[in-house]
Amino acid sequence: MADLKYQPVKHDHDAFLEKARNRRGFDEAYDSLEAEYMLVRELLGARVRAGLTQEEVATSMGTTKSAVSRLESASKHSPSVTTLKKYAKAVGCDIEIHLVPTPRPTKVSSGRRKG
Fold this sequence. Notes:
Layout: H1 13-20, H2 26-32, H3 34-50, H4 54-61, H5 65-71, H6 81-90
Helix pairs in contact: 4-5, 4-6
């Protein structure tokens, strides 16, 4: 069997979204998973920048290629912080987690004065 060289598949995410947003209910479903999709984009981007295959990342993490594949998909199972740290180390990155305050609605004054 000939040696196979890793050739990542080109993906134009913006074009994909533009087409997908025409489907009824897509926007609501996609928006509800925004954090998960953002994490997946971060993971894939880091692996691609590192020039690694899923198999190479899996070996570095001490896991299987299928586990890395699941990690890189927006699935119903959220990864642990420990798993994210292992992945980050495998692709030559550090991990940062930030909590961003949600703006609170402003109170509307009734115009009445107390007293």
